[in-house]
Amino acid sequence: MNRFLLPLSIFVVVVGFLAVGLKLNPREIPSPLVGKAAPDFSQPQLYDREKVFSPADMKGKVWLLNFWASWCSGCKTEHPVLMELARSGEVPIYGMDYKDQPDEAMTWLRQWGNPYSIIGTDDVGRVGINFGVYGVPETYVIDKQGVIRYKQIGPLNPDAVSQKIIPLVKQLESQ
Amino acid sequence: MKWIILIVLCVSGPAWAGEARPLADDPAAEARLKHLAVELRCLVCQNQTLADSNAPLAEDLRREVREMIAKNMSDKEIIEFLVSRYGDFVLYRPPLKATTTLLWVGPFVLLTIGATALVITLRRRAHKVVEVAVSEEEHRKVEQLMAEGGKRS
Amino acid sequence: MIPEIGHFALILALCVALVQGILPIYGAAVGNAALMSLAKPAARLQFLLILTAFGCLAYAFADKDFSVLYVASTSNSQLPLHYRLAAIWGAHEGSLLLWTFILTLWMFAVTLFSAHLPEATRSRILGVMGLVSVGFLLFMLTVSNPFERLIPAAPDGRDLNPLLQDPGMVIHPPMLYMGYVGFSVAFAFAIAALLGGNLDAAWARWSRPWTTVAWCFLTVGIAMGSGWAYYELGWGGGWFWDPVENASFMPWLAGTALVHSLAVTDKRGGFKVWTVLLAIMAFSLSLLGTFLVRSGVLTSVHAFATDPKRGLFILAFLAIVIGGSLALYAWRAPKVGLGGSFAMLSREGMLLANNVLLVAAMGSVLLGTLYPLFLDALDLGKISVGPPYFDSVFVPLMVPALFLMGIGPLAQWKKANLPDLAKRLKWAFGVSVVSALTLPIVLGNWTPLLSLGLLLAVWIVTTAVVSLRERLTHVTGNSLMERLASVPRSYWGMLVAHCGIAVFIVGVTMVKGFESEKDVRMNVGETASIGDYTFRFDGTQDVMGPNYTAARGTFRVSYDGSETTVLYPEKRRYPVQNQIMTEAAIDPGLLRDLYVSLGEPLDDGAWSVRLYHKPFIDWIWGGCFIMALGGALAISDRRYRIAWHKQEPAVPAPTRAARRKVA
Fold first, then answer.
1. Are residues C64 and C71 in contact, defined by beta-carbon separation less than 8 angstroms?
2. Which one of B78, C234, C415, C553 has the fewest beta carbons within 10 angstroms of its own beta carbon?
3. What is the domain class of A27-174 according to CATH?
4. C379 and C264 belong to one structural domain
5. How far is C305 from chain A (nearest CA, A)?
6. Cross-chain CB nearest to C330 (options A4, A21, A29)
7. Contacts of B23 (CB under 8 A, 6+ apart)
8. Rounded to two decimals, what is the model's pTM?
């Protein structure tokens, strides 16, 4: 091979990677928790702080855990999608109110509707850290054995629900 | 006399003002936190260390790390805690694995290739180049061209 | 109306650039003098047109014309005039206009100082620069037009990012771009030589001063950026190995290698193909930097707001310009001759070894910067490559380069003698080792890195002294002053630039070894001590800036009981973007900086306060300025002045030859 072609070949490879890179989002960090057991917690519930909400109660169920907050604008964007999903009854949605004021959260839900079966509260964000949450909203699909199967980073959209979440839930339920 | 004392007191202010307290309750733990945090990446920021960032998540994570330090966990355990939640992305010093081998050995491979190429080229060149006054010749050409160009324009 | 004139000037400039990029190169290929002669007037006209466009944008900012989208999104009626003007390059569109403006400025300079070039070469150089300009003008006119109107006009602008409202912003980007874009001249020279097949020693001689000037600007530009980060970001650090910082550092490393390799090619006619590749690389890396900053493929604290369309455009442009050049290189380079001979152990050999090290360092920075992208693209996970990585691979590569830097200038051209070199350098080596071992102990903190840093710094300075002493015995002159004056400026330039590196190393080493910091909670009247200095907090007061409000703290600093200075750090709030900025206060000094920044207000007038004592930190930037000064001295050497002044009467040949021996 002509050794003078070497710089050009290296450059072509780099350009190829840069072209692929344009389509990627460098800020989306895949979770190492997918395929692992969901971290345990037991948090007071939003509407009744005496009661606790814990994944242990969910054994045998396929469910969604959605981290959200009333101060988060992405949560507002995704809210209609969650409402629609809740109405369809395909999968139960559980909420985790992340670093929020309970009264503000309740006002928010009263205004926009409540898609959640139960809402836990994570006042200091520790559950969020255990789940590797780095920006709300984030949504986890958890199977019957309590293993995290999928993580949606950022707002859910109708495509993600119909193409990823629902097929995955159906598959997990049949297992 | 009295006002001289007063002036002395004002000028040497520090003498009667109190010594400021460190911000952290435990400066030693804080130093360890800092030592760890400069090698950790804030997840929500553009590109900042956990030590430099003021993002709420960075503050929460610093709080977690402080608690782990208080529990006497080792640096390795603390890093393990973060990596198991956020992946290798949090580490500014990428761990050596199959996928990062090229990253870590690359610079030294580059250097070795470069040095070998230089030695080989110089050796081969020494055989090919006969001692000629090429360069002097060319220098003369430069001077000539410069002079000509000057005249032409 | 004025913005439309600017817009129109850009369109005309594109037409002119097309003419400049196509006809003269074609003319040079077929030997048509009329077509070739178009290059010079076209380049000058293009410069005037871009100057007009630039002036129009400046006018729109000065006039607070918020019907221009770019003006409305990067300035505000409250923003002071100098920052409104600096806002021209405060975001993507305007900074592209600055890029293009500086490109045409360099073109204009080429038309002024190219009287001695053969017509065909000049036409090709200007043609290549014209083609680069076509790309940038097309980019601006299609997806990044700074003159785009906003209808209806905004009542007021969204303001310039407060981080950028700083004197550093006024001067840092133009300097940096002068450097980046300056490499386009060496690039165009290289491509012209490849096109014309006349890649000879003359080419190296012509490229040298241009490359050195660009390198000086880039050095100063990077130093100013780092200094700005030091006082503006409030972390007390100046270099973070952020992708965008790396994007400016890679062309610098390639440019530094190029400056040295050009010396070999100029002197010995050798390694032309390598030098030409470096010239292409230096400019290609500048373009790559432009892509990285604007495409959003990497996360950086400095990145512009990104848009995939723009990323795609620059990538295509990059592929055409760099790919085309490298293809031309692969085609033409095999036919280039070898040049004069020299031994492995010779000044030439060492310059080339230094090249290998610099390019390996550059390759490592590139690898580290792009590696996260590589892994992500191959779906192998996300990683971060940060300062710990770069520090640990960069230092081992730089240490031998710096060590060679001491020996190289003392080695003879063509063939050096190792025992002889060792004999001449033994004093320098002894002094370096002894000072490296004792100085840290005297200063009270011995670490291997501290010793290593000081060893290298002292080594560079002592070998420079040895070299100068030997040089002085070879030149004629009776008094010392006379002999000093007869040493050529290019030699002084080299010594000064190398000593700049030594100063830089001292700065980095001392800061790393001896800096101290303290986070304290200070009530009014309380004191805190750091590095033998005592800071007393006298409270804060509210102040009004032109477009911000601030809490300004007063800190009285005393040393040994007597007051040395008063520092006023601020916590500013910029209402338009509702951003809080920490404005650190610094007392700079030759031997140390004192640095105070306000954290958060606590209860009853107390504040959290961060104090730094940073010994020798200003040597870091001082070293960079000294390097640039060295470059400036080198290009003021008389042989370049002779080459540039066409009217100067021809110097008789013997004198020239004599002069060359000295140089």
1. yes
2. C415
3. alpha beta
4. yes
5. 14
6. A4
7. B30, C519, C520, C521, C599, C608
8. 0.90
